[in-house]
């Protein structure tokens, strides 16, 4: 995930247990050690029949979509808002394959809880993707790959939460949300890809941000400078709290 033909044939990557990752004091400078693997990132999620169906039905369209993004990615920098055109794209097939990747990276209960997603894939001609599902995308070099299964993302400033799952692998990052009615800063919504006919080809005029993924947290697009600043600030606050606790204890 994504398919080998979408630049994932010889991928070298490191797997790190998420619990170990969040325990690290500074996961940017000193990430926990993991196991290095290569040969492409994949999941044992689909049976042979379903895997072949997805490969023949949607992967060729996704390959063209990925090639277009990669050509642009090599020319741009972080946080730029880029306008560009990708020709001869089949949007319905593209979003169906993106949905298949989210089914692959999530546990079995996910498919059981959201059978509408499987129906959207199995019925090739259907455009019926319920409104409770929204799909967003962004360009990314994916400094750290993201394969984040269903999770709750909380915003301490606004007090809001977002149910989502996220994948980031060059040239794109994707987020699928559940019962979410708000906006996600910097991300471009592509849910309307479902409105195209199955074999309809079109030229897409895209306006998309390129975002970094230095940390293994969903919806986190901070650059290295911002992350370092936030870590230093958190460590200072923690030290102040420790000193206050010791002072209170010694009184």
What does this entry look like structurally?
Helix content is 35%, strand content 24%. With 251 residues, the chain is an alpha+beta fold. The chain has one domain. A hairpin with a 4-residue loop joins strand 5 (146-155) and strand 6. The mean pLDDT is 84.
Main attributes?
about 250 residues; alpha+beta; 7 helices; about 25% strand
Spatially, the strands of the biggest sheet line up as: 5-6-7-4-8
Q: How many domains, in number, for the residues?
A: 1
Could you estimate the helical fraction of the residues in percent?
Answer: 25-40%
What is the straight-line distance between the termini? 58 Å
Count of distinct strands: 9
**Structural class by secondary-structure content:** alpha+beta
**Series of secondary-structure elements, N-terminal to C-terminal:** EHEHHEHHHEEEEEEH
Strand content: 15-25%
Unreliable stretches: none
Largest sheet: 5 strands, antiparallel
Radius of gyration: 20 Å
Mean pLDDT: 84
Shape verdict: globular
What is the count of DSSP helices, taking H or I runs of 4+ residues?
Answer: 7
